[in-house]
């Protein structure tokens, strides 16, 4: 469309485009038919498409969205072209999945693989940075499982689907609090409940990574190099 053909007072073009108003009825029919076909396609792809998805599945979903928009709205394009494109996308995804089933390296490349976020109560900061997971995002997931400190965690994995899997330690230990830092009242309650008894060693937790050390030990954290400590709970 040439710029001299664009006029802000041209309400007919703004609302209906270059097609006549009756095309709105055709858009409705196209949308209903395309949506029904798309439902069958997603059902064919499996239940995973309606839950947490992997990288490959997300790519297919975005592709499907791009494919169906044109047949629903553009008068110069027919529905049959969209159907053919949908079938091609499904065939491509099925072929990739079959190949990944027989080739583990290709599966890791297309589907992604789990990564470890916490190991024995210590955050794996480098991996968290690569996965773009913040401490508070991770702590929020732990709080959902009623975990108040990192000492109660043995392993935390970020799955390829984006889900976070949490494995509790067989025996909980003192560790860095996962409680919201602004909630001073609840922090005080846990600190009071975890005060060492006579003769017990006072433990400190690294605020940066969660490494625990005795209070009597001076120096920076051997895991992350930071020198910022708080009472372990």
Give me the count of strands.
Answer: 7
Which descriptor suits the 3D outline?
elongated
Number of helices: 8
Query: How far apart lie the N and C ends?
Result: 67 Å
What CATH architecture of the largest domain would you give? 2-Layer Sandwich
> Which regions are unreliable across 5 or more consecutive residues at pLDDT < 50?
none
Main sheet properties? 4 strands, antiparallel
* Computed structural class: alpha+beta
Helical residues, percent: 40-55%
Query: Rg, please?
Result: 27 Å
Order of helix and strand elements from N to C terminus? HHHHHEEHHEEHEEE
Mean pLDDT: 80
Fourth-level CATH superfamily of the largest domain: bsu07140 like domains
CATH class of the largest domain: Alpha Beta
Structural write-up:
- With 233 residues, the chain is of the alpha+beta class.
- It folds into 2 domains: 107 residues, no CATH class; 117 residues, 2-Layer Sandwich (CRO Repressor), CATH 3.30.240.
- It has 8 helices and 7 strands; from the N terminus they run αααααββααββαβββ.
- The model has no long low-confidence stretch (mean pLDDT 80).
Q: What are the key terms here?
A:
alpha+beta, single chain, 233 residues, three-stranded antiparallel sheet, 2 domains, CRO Repressor, 8 helices, 12% strand
What's the topology here?
Layout: H1 11-16, H2 23-45, H3 55-73, H4 79-102, H5 104-111, E1 115-119, E2 122-123, H6 125-131, H7 135-144, E3 153-158, E4 164-168, H8 184-193, E5 203-206, E6 212-214, E7 229-231
Antiparallel strand pairs: 1-2, 1-3, 3-4, 5-6, 5-7
């Amino acid at each position: 469309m040439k710029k001299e053909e664009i006029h802000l007072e041209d309400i007919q073009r703004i609302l209906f485009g270059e097609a006549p108003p009756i095309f709105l009825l055709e858009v409705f029919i196209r949308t209903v038919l395309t949506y029904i076909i798309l439902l069958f396609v997603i059902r064919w792809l499996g239940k995973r498409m309606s839950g947490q998805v992997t990288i490959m599945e997300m790519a297919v979903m975005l592709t499907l969205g791009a494919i169906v928009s044109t047949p629903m709205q553009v008068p110069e394009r027919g529905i049959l072209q969209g159907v053919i494109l949908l079938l091609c996308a499904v065939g491509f995804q099925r072929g990739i999945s079959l190949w990944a089933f027989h080739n583990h390296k290709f599966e890791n490349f297309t589907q992604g693989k789990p990564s470890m976020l916490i190991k024995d109560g210590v955050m794996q900061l480098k991996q968290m940075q690569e996965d773009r997971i913040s401490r508070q995002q991770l702590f929020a997931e732990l709080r959902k499982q009623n975990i108040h400190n990192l000492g109660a965690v043995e392993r935390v994995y970020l799955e390829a689907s984006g889900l976070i899997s949490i494995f509790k330690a067989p025996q909980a230990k003192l560790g860095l609090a996962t409680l919201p830092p602004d909630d001073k009242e609840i922090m005080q309650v846990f600190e009071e409940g975890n005060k060492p008894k006579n003769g017990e060693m006072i433990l400190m937790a690294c605020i940066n990574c969660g490494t625990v050390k005795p209070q009597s030990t001076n120096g920076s954290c051997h895991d992350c190099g930071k020198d910022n400590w708080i009472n372990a709970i």
